[in-house]
Amino acid sequence: MPTKEEIFERIRGALVEALGVDEEEVTPEATLVGDLGAESIDFLDIVFRLEKVFNIKIPRGELFPEDVLTNSKYVADGRVTPEGLAELRKRMPFANLDEFAKNPVVQDFGNLLTVADMCRFIEGKVEVTG
Amino acid sequence: MAATRLEGKKALVTGGSRGIGRACVVQLASEGAQVVLVYQASRDPAEALVAELTAQGRLVRAVQADVCDAARAQQVVDEMVAREGRVDILVNSAGIVRDGLMGAMTYEQWREVIETNLCGTYNYCRAAAQQMLYQRGGSIVNLSSTAAEFASRGQVNYAASKGGIDGLTRAMAKEFAPRKVRVNAVAPGMIDTDMSKAVRGLVGDKIKEIIPMKRIGTPEEIARVVAFLASDDASYITGQVLRVDGGLSLGGY
């Protein structure tokens, strides 16, 4: 069972491989899209790598709920509706959506997820020691 | 043509025991690829093909699977990664016809063709793409048909399934292009296979008259194009549907 530090180390390794970034760039505060340059296709690759290094199954769309952001039920005029925000909070308990909720422009969503969010996401999936 | 163009490549071919899929297995193996072929019902032809190619020193094995089964597709790919180590090439050749005039077509005829041809292609594309993305490279070749674009009576199901494959090919190609995974399709015209024999039985040899080259194509003529698209010789080609039909689709008069 990994410690929190080990989880961060392994996530950093996966991000370095998937995104071709330097280890130093992968800080807890770094955003995946804005700082590390992840494109939507990278999320599929990142999730696959995380599955391998942690030996877990991650349902597609759990880390990055693209289906919510492209659903007309949850998006109006390029902004996530209150119902959509509620759905996102339910789906992404590991992420802090408070800042995004102030001005929920769909296009900005990708820039919200940080490495620390990803660590919390994994911590919720594996048993953490220490 | 370099006999070793595909040396070291690991290829997965669905519908690999008969027809065009079989020719693809032979072609890929003869160019040096290690091949896993998927068959559904044709165990004997599949095993005979494996024995034949093994005797020639090729590395080929056969697995039974129904391409409609998505979980099984993932399993086949996972097993291939465990045994062969990677998936460099995927050829989706499993396909069926259940022709019938639309007024007489049953929903079952429609569903069977869409599920095998289109959903089957999707299932293997999706399972293999993840691995190809991880490897940072791969080439997928889907078997379309000129029937996707050119109408034949009695084939609304088949035409829809092949048109769907064309759309899937282009959309998937765009998604995966940044990570060096190429996706293309080959659209054969009238080819000498068991599948087309049934159709030709109806139309007769007349069909040759409307093909500018005045002859039916061979599965090998399709397989060579599939091998080209699968190989690094096609490294800058993605999202294309290449017609291989002796000029059948040229139109005019």
Q: Approximately how much beta-strand content do the residues of chain A carry?
A: under 5%
CATH topology of chain B: Rossmann fold
- The dominant shape of chain B is globular
* Helicity level of chain A: 40-55%
Q: Main beta sheet of chain A: strand number and arrangement?
A: 2 strands, antiparallel
CATH superfamily label of the largest domain in chain A = ACP-like
Order of helices and strands of chain A: HHHEEHHHH
Determine the CATH topology of the largest domain in chain A.
Non-ribosomal Peptide Synthetase Peptidyl Carrier Protein, Chain A
Multimer state: heterodimer
Q: Describe it for me?
A:
The complex is a heterodimer of chains A (130) and B (253). Chain A has helices at 4-19, 40-54, 66-69, 82-91, 98-102, 106-109, 115-123; strands at residues 75-76, 79-80. With 130 residues, chain A is mostly helical. Chain B is an alpha/beta fold. Chain B has 8 helices and 7 strands, in the order E-H-E-H-E-H-E-H-E-H-E-H-H-H-E. Chain B has helices at residues 19-30, 43-55, 70-83, 107-135, 156-176, 194-203, 207-210, 219-230, and strands spanning 10-14, 34-39, 60-64, 89-92, 138-143, 181-188, 241-244. Chain B has a 7-stranded parallel beta sheet with strand order 3-2-1-4-5-6-7, sandwiched between helices. In chain B, helix 4 (107-135) runs parallel beside helix 5 (156-176). The interface between A and B is small, with 6 and 7 residues.
